[in-house]
Amino acid sequence: MLKAKALEPVRKLPGYDALVEQARQNARKARLDGGVASGLTKISPRAAGLSEPALAALLKAAEEAGTSALVLMYRGDLVGEWHFGGESHRTESMSATKSVVAMAIGMLIDEGRIPSVDTPVSTWFPEWKDGIKSQVTLRHILNHTSGLAAERSGMGIYDARDFVRYALDAEVVDPPGSRFFYSNIAVNLLPGIVERASGEKLDAYLQRKLFEPLGIMDFRWDKDPSGNPVGMAGLQIHPVDFAKLGQVMLQQGTYRAQRFLSQTWVQQCTTSSHPEGSASGLLWWHIYEKSPAMTLVQPMLDEAREKGYSSEKLAKLKDLVGHPMPQEAFAAAIIQRLGSNEELSAFEAKVVRAQYEWKQEGEPVGFAAMGAGGQKLLVFPKHQLVVVRMADMDERVSHQAMAFKALVPLVLDMVRPANARMKEPGMAEMP
């Protein structure tokens, strides 16, 4: 945050350097008091079998992409923890929060407090016992096929006092299980389900059952005005502590000989769960070396026009319809035509029924929790690596740069011969 554009005038004030130094000291003390990274054994990159030149290239690219922190773990040992322009601090994980919520659901299934992933949501919310809502199961929420009416960004949710009630009141517009549509609204039901199944708020349950046993003490979880922990985002955590959660997933639910999740649940979370969302499992995502091919389709333009989006701006997108492009080039082409990332968000906010077409080539190289602003918790089982990259959304770099799409191949470059290193970046992410 110290490099944020908004702070440029402040940097010129007398005493700024002393203020920064005091902030750094406070951050170091908070880290020490919170036991951040407690219990981790350190190992050198060479001992982990990682290419040091490739690591240097990764660190350079990470800094250029506006990264605030990068963490590497190998077989449960800490290879390195790098902070760019500041000290370790709790960072908003954005939608990567969802993957942690899925861990809570799995733990409750393992405990028998939730019968199964196919349990109807009406088990906890009787108002859904009638009509099409009675068909919605926990699995549908977890794999984004609930059919609940949703907006792409989820920003409208923040106007609600009770995010759980907001989701309960939403209409089901598609038969449950029939269509993949990324839904922030539906995921906000999960904290309510956790509370009814466990008798505890989501954050309190995870603190007691997962975070404290892992030595994760200094975290924060946003709540809605009614006191519900948010499901779609809101977990603020130190990057090195976030890596511990990835290590649990890498080790099929265990950490330091203690089991937190069943192997069955980890496999369900990280296995494709719906043909239309083949890059996703249960709130966890597959990661690939190459970007998917993205295609703008005419129904998206038609829907945006019906909902009042500028016909003049839609005309600028017409030449992209039906032409697949690599994800990075695709996003750049749309932003160039519309003028800004904010305008792209405005266009997407108008489109609910139609979706981009995308096609992913190749096999997954791992799985991940991912969120806006390039928040990534990456797990590479073949290489026994866990990587966390987090960034403060402080406008130092563009939204495109902050996404850091080159991260996956740069990580894999560290474990392969120099002559086999990839030059084409990419990772599968939903629009």
UniProtKB/TrEMBL annotation:
Pfam families: Beta-lactamase. It comes from the Bacteria. Residues 67-394 form the Beta-lactamase-related domain. Keywords: Hydrolase. GO terms for molecular function: hydrolase activity. Gene3D superfamilies: DD-peptidase/beta-lactamase superfamily (3.40.710.10). InterPro entries: Beta-lactam-related, Beta-lactam/transpept-like, Diverse_Enzym_Activities. This is Serine hydrolase. It comes from Myxococcus xanthus.
